Amino acid sequence: MLRATYIRGPTIFRSLFVLPSLRFPPLRNMSHRPIQTLLNANEEWAQSVVKDTPDFFARSATRQNPKILWIGCSDSRVPESIITASKPGDIFVHRNVANQFHLHDDSALSVLSFAVKEVGVEHVVLVGHTNCGGAMACIEAAKVAATNPSASTPLTRWLSPLTALVRSLDLSACSANEALNKVVEANIIKQVDNICKSEPITTVWADPLAKKVTVHGWMYDLAEGRIKELVVRDSQA
């Protein structure tokens, strides 16, 4: 059985899981076992939530009122709800490789626009993290691009602005770890700048009657499990 322990608070809804015995009919292909584990865990989790708060899902299904938009990396080690001990409905989310916010990216812009104008979020947090694989790839790409340009792929095109940012930094005196941290931090600040230049933010900041929206740049330390705030911007900045 799965055990779930909940600690209540404004944004605290934590669960301690012990994976259950398999309850769904076994899948024929052994490679599907991770999928079966997720399905079983979901069933047990849903049952435990209903037992603890019978009307939770009924209320959740009718509305959402998050105050936070999280724009983060796709990295599996940075699950926003878990590392902030949040419950479903607390955080509106957009994630991609290397936590980018491109001003021509309709996916990110539509999420930001909907979050600010329709959902009513009050804080936009751009979250990067240590040991970012996307940042590592861009450091390597910046080293070899001049002499051995790589073929264009969806990933290299997506990361090309970050690769250009790496080239603009002086990393010559940095160790590999120092260089990576410097790139991660510079990337966070750059993406915060992009968010602040975007139409949804400039529009709401220009309207004195609009709800106040603040933009934050955070870095999550994988080795420590803690978030550090690097920058904060608002309409007064």
Shape: globular
Q: Which strands sit side by side, in order, in the main sheet? A: 2-1-3-4-5
Helix content: 40-55%
Order of helices and strands: HHEHEHEHHHHEE
> What percentage of amino acids are in beta strands?
5-15%
Q: How does the major sheet shape up? A: 5 strands, mixed
- Rounded Rg: 21 Å
- What gap, in angstroms, lies between the N and C termini? 52 Å
SS-based structural class? alpha/beta
Average pLDDT, to the nearest integer? Answer: 89
Number of strands: 5
Q: Count the helices. How many?
A: 8
- Ranges with pLDDT <50 over ≥5 residues? 1-22
What does this structure look like?
The protein has a five-stranded mixed β-sheet with strand order 2-1-3-4-5. By secondary structure, the chain is of the alpha/beta class. The protein contains eight helices and five strands, in the order ααβαβαβααααββ. The longest helix is centred in the last third of the chain and has 22 residues, at 176-197.
Quick gist of this model?
The protein has 237 residues and is α/β, with parallel strands linked by helices.
Features:
237 residues; alpha/beta; 5-stranded mixed beta sheet; 5 strands; 15% strand; disordered N terminus
What does the secondary structure layout of this molecule look like, with pairings?
Elements: H1 33-52, H2 56-62, E1 68-73, H3 80-83, E2 91-96, H4 106-119, E3 123-129, H5 133-144, H6 154-168, H7 176-197, H8 199-206, E4 214-221, E5 226-233
Parallel strand pairs: 1-2, 1-3, 3-4
Antiparallel strand pairs: 4-5
